[in-house]
C-alpha cells in the first residue's frame, strides 16, 4: 500500500457556545491514499462537516479548541501558520461546498472568479494565460462551449453547471485531495448522477484522493471505497464499502440502511425508522451516544465502547458497539433485511 | 377508488406567467408555461405523488390548484364544485378543507409566535374553537403528532427540524381537512427523521381519512407514500398511474431517465449498473 497522503489522528474540535462547551468532533482519525474515495456519512450535528473544515483550517477561532493531528505529506496542519494554510488550500486540498448558488459571487463573471483563484497562487501568469486555463478547466468538467460560457455570470448557469464551475475552481491548481461537502444535495437526481460521474472520472484520471461528505447512502454506494459513519462527533463504524453495506456492525448503521426507501425493491408497508433524535452535543448521554435510541441497549452501554476491529479476519472494519459479532449478525436481521428494529 | 368518491378533479389546468419588456408600456413578449395543461384526480383518503425536478412546475401546480395563484385557464373541482376563479371571500370557508405542509420547517413557522398560537391559528381564524377549549384542542393535536402538550408555550427555535415539521403537520390537521398538499415535506430533514415523518403522515391518513397530494423530487419517498404517481416535466404530466407500476414499468422516456438516475444504496448493484451502461 502506498504512503498516506493525508493522515488525521485523534482530531478533537470543541466550541465554546452560549449554552456551554461542546465537543463537535471527538477523536476522529483516518488515512487517505492517492486515488481513494473516503465517504463520511452522518446526520446534522454528527461532526462530518466540522471535520472537513478543520482539515482545511477553516474552524480556527477564539472559541474553538482544536487538538490532535492532521498531516499532509507528513507535515502538520493543525498548528501551521496562516501563510502555509493558504498555500495548502487550493494548491494541495481543494474544496467543494453544498450550495453552488451561494458559493459563487453573483457580481463577477464565472471565468474571472476561477482566474482569480489561479492568480492568487500563481502571480507569474498573465491575464491571457489564466483565462485560457479557466476555459480549459470549464471544458474539462463538461461545460459546453466553455470559451463562450467563461464570460457568463453565475445566474446564467444552471445549478448543475454552477456545481461544475465550483469543481473546476477547486481543481484549478491541481490539488491532490478534494473535499466535497454534500456536493450533490442541492441538485436534481439527473444532475446529481452527472456530477457523481464527473467526480469518479476525475478520481480515476487524476488519481485524486477524495473525501466525500454526505448523508445519502445511495451516493456512497456509487462512488466510495471506504466509509466512515459518524454520530454525535464520533466515528461509530468504519470499513470498506462492502463491509459497511453487507456486514454492518453498529446499530446506528443498521438503522440508516434500514430506513432507506429503495425503488428497486417491493415497498414495505411501513418505513423502518430510528426513533428519537440525535442527542444535544452539550448534554451527551453517558457512555454510547446512540444508547437512548438503541433497542439493543444493555448494562455495559453506559460505558463508551472503543472504536476497534472485533473480527480478526477484517482488521480494518472497526466499530463502537459492545455487542459481540454473533449477536450483531442476529440482531440486525429484521424481516429478512438489515434494520434496527421491526416497524411498530 | 371510485367507491371512495372523488375529492378533487383537475382538468387542463394552465398557469402562464407573462414575461414583460418595455420602459413605459409593459409589453408581453413571452410566457413562461409553468403549468401547461395538466389533469388529474384525487379520491378521498388517497395519496397522489407528484414527482418532478426543479422547474418542472410541481409547486406552481399545487399553488394554482389551491387557488393561491390564479389559474390562467382550466378547471379545479373540489367535491364537485368548481373553485377556479372564486373570490377570496368565497374561498375562505373552503380553506378549512384544504391545508398545506411546507418543505422548510425553519421558514414556515413564525419565529415570534409560540407553538400553541401557531397550531391554534387556523382554529381561531375559522372560529372553530376559543378559550380553554382551544388550548385543550391544540394540546391534543400536539400529542397526536408526537409532541408533548408542554410544548404549547415554546417557540419554534427550541425545536429540531423534525419536531418543527411535526408542528407544521399539527397546524395542517387542526381543522381536519379533507386534503393536505405536502410540498417536499421531508426533503430538508435528516435521513433517520424522514422515516418518522413519513410514518406519521401515514398514521394520520388512516385516522383522519385525509387525501394527500405529496409533492417531492425523491421518487423513492414518493413511491413509498403514494397510491398513484404523476410525473411532471416542463409543466406537463408526462405519465401517471399506479405507484408500483410507474416505478417498475415506466412508459415515458423521462420517467425512465429519472428512475435510472436514482442512486441505489447497494454497492454490488451499483457496480452492476455501471458495467451494463
Describe the protein's topology.
The complex is a heterodimer of chains A (344) and B (277).
Chain A: E1 6-17, E2 20-32, E3 37-41, H1 48-55, E4 64-72, E5 75-76, H2 82-91, E6 93-96, H3 110-121, H4 127-140, H5 146-149, H6 159-171, E7 177-181, H7 189-205, E8 209-214, H8 217-223, E9 226-231, E10 234-240, H9 241-246, H10 251-258, E11 308-309, E12 318-319, H11 325-331, E13 333-334, E14 337-338
Parallel strand pairs in A: 3-8, 3-9, 6-7, 7-8
Antiparallel strand pairs in A: 1-2, 1-4, 4-5, 9-10, 10-12, 11-12, 13-14
Chain B: E1 6-21, E2 27-43, E3 47-51, H1 58-65, E4 73-78, E5 81-82, H2 88-95, E6 98-101, H3 115-125, H4 131-144, H5 161-173, E7 179-183, H6 191-208, E8 211-216, H7 219-225, E9 228-233, E10 236-242, H8 243-248, H9 253-261, H10 267-276
Helix pairs in contact in B: 3-4, 3-5, 4-5, 5-6
The greatest interface here is: A-B, 41 and 39 residues
In what order do the strands lie side by side in the largest sheet of chain B? 6-7-8-3-9-10
Shape of chain A: globular
Strand order of the largest sheet of chain A: 6-7-8-3-9-10-12-11
Distance between the termini of chain A: 47 Å
Broad structural category of chain A: alpha/beta
Count of alpha/pi helices of chain A: 11
Keywords:
heterodimer, A: alpha/beta, eight-stranded mixed β-sheet, four-stranded antiparallel β-sheet, 11 helices, B: 277 residues, alpha/beta, 38% helix
